Amino acid sequence: MAGHSKWANIKRRKSAVDAKKGKIFTKIGREIAVAVREGGPDPTTNSKLRDVIAKAKANNMPNDTIERSIKKAAGEADGANYEEITYEGYGPSGVAVIVETMTDNKNRTAGDMRHYFDKFGGNLGANGCVSWMFDKKGLIVIENDGKIDEDQLMMDALDAGAEDFNTEDEYYEIITSPEDFSTVREALEAKGYTFASAEVTMIPQSTVTLNEEDAIKMRKLIDHLEDNDDVQNVYHNWDMPDEDEEE
Questions:
Q1: Is 247 domain-assigned?
Q2: Is residue 1 included in any domain, yes or no?
């Protein structure tokens, strides 16, 4: 499909921040809290919670940690009231950036977002200013361990309702509509497939390249955004080069 999801780069970045697993688990814990608040603590009747649990498992979050997060959220009627807020803006040279946050203090979060964009050569924009450049899709990634029958996987995915199937050297990408994501994920899970990643994401329709100076600024912007406790996801349409290409 148009606009490669660049999961290989996402994977590299995830492996580079393994030391921040605690932070990742904290962010997923917030997603669990919001899902429980909206639909209850039972994943069999709460599809949003089922999706977050799948994301947690793909990030190697231990089952007992997941269970504790659900129980904690279910027992915290007066806990922090997190609000989901999405920011859109431009990085260096007009790179489109979408930042999904979950915050209990939107004034603090808005101030942080504005500071990061201003500091690294970008600027915040109005809602909708760049989201039209992305397609909201379900993305399921399964690593190619040499044991998976590619044709069977593709058939299983398409039969379950997937829109597209991509094969790369190290992994398979399964693209779904946001509405069909849970159905496809659960069908593949029932067949025994293990996911390296499973979530609804924003895939750019096209990407842009940057000169060396702007690439440094853009990487710093992404790093600061991802390191912020309130930020859940960062999407952009920068054609991020491979690590070895930058050296």
A1: no
A2: no
